[in-house]
Amino acid sequence: MKWTELSVQTTNEAVDAVSVILEDAGSDGVKIEDADDYKNLRAGKFGEILDLEDIPHIENGALVTGYYVSSSDIKALVSKIESQVLALKKFGLNPGSGKVIQKPLEETEWQTEWEKYYHPVRVTRYLTVVPSWESYQKTSPEEKILKLDPGMAFGTGTHPTTQLCLQALEMYLRGGEKVIDVGTGSGVLSIAASKMGASEIKAYDLDQVAVNSAVENLKLNPDVKNVQLGTNDLLAGIQAQADIVVANILAEIIVPLVPQAKACLKPNGIFITSGIIKEKLPTVLSALQDQKFKIIEILQMKDWRAVVAQIPTD
User: Fold this and answer.
1) Which of 25, 88, 103, 266 is most buried when burial is the number of CB atoms within 10 A of its CB?
2) Where in the chain is the domain with CATH 3.30.70.120?
3) What parts of the chain have a pLDDT lower than 50?
4) How distant is the alpha carbon of residue 161 from its chain centre?
5) Binding annotation
6) Binding site listing for S-adenosyl-L-methionine
7) Interatomic CA distance for residues 150 and 132, integer angstroms
8) pTM, rounded to two decimals
9) What is the distance between the alpha carbons of residues 84 and 225, in angstroms, rounded to a whole number?
10) Adjacent-strand bridge partners of 100
11) d(CA 87, CA 65)
């Protein structure tokens, strides 16, 4: 299979937002190159001098790269991405030139490039995401390993929006809860919920490719046996009752999800939402308050926000 690499020329402050735009457009993995990362390099432990001329790097701004099947309408996709990136100005972000650079890429080359940038990452106090091809030993008995293979899609579980969801799950899961994961993608939130003691997890995604990806990641975590996967448009038609509903999706999609989540939550149920760029936070909070949710907590990482809300019993 042949792939096309689309790289967006942008700024450091817009990196996260551009990453979401590429992923929302169907990007099969995202790579970030930031000039500031090279500027901050220092001499090594034993005083070696790093010569930036010997390290391939960009000199200014940032480059965010996504990967797409070459059979896609790439020309239309480039136009759509450029338009959405430049529209970030409306949210107070400087997107830079927003120019999209196109390059053909073989699948084997893509895989090699991806694996260079994907390593074990401790994403919360107890959770560590580990790629399937890496060996890793726990550093403490309490640490929980989430094995993932992003393959050609759906991220690594280390994006700020995902980390915020994982942090919230770690804070509010006590064991024995029933969980619904909306927009499961790689399945990382469902896998984490299971490893943290949830009794039952139902995970849904509109994209069958995402569900297939989650199935493969579940196989990498054989101790996870209580996740049910399915395709669905958010929670439309779902009658299950849960203690926790978690959704790592864009703010525009969270708004119509709010009443559906309310219908699927037990009294005192917890609704965890992430994928909210800070400028969209008031919109999400308003939608939650319109449905009588109580806002318990707002978590933040960089320009992203996650909201923990609850249905009060009174």
Assistant:
1) 88
2) 2-116
3) 41-52, 54-55, 152-154
4) 5
5) 162, 183, 205, 248
6) 162, 183, 205, 248
7) 9
8) 0.69
9) 40
10) 8
11) 18
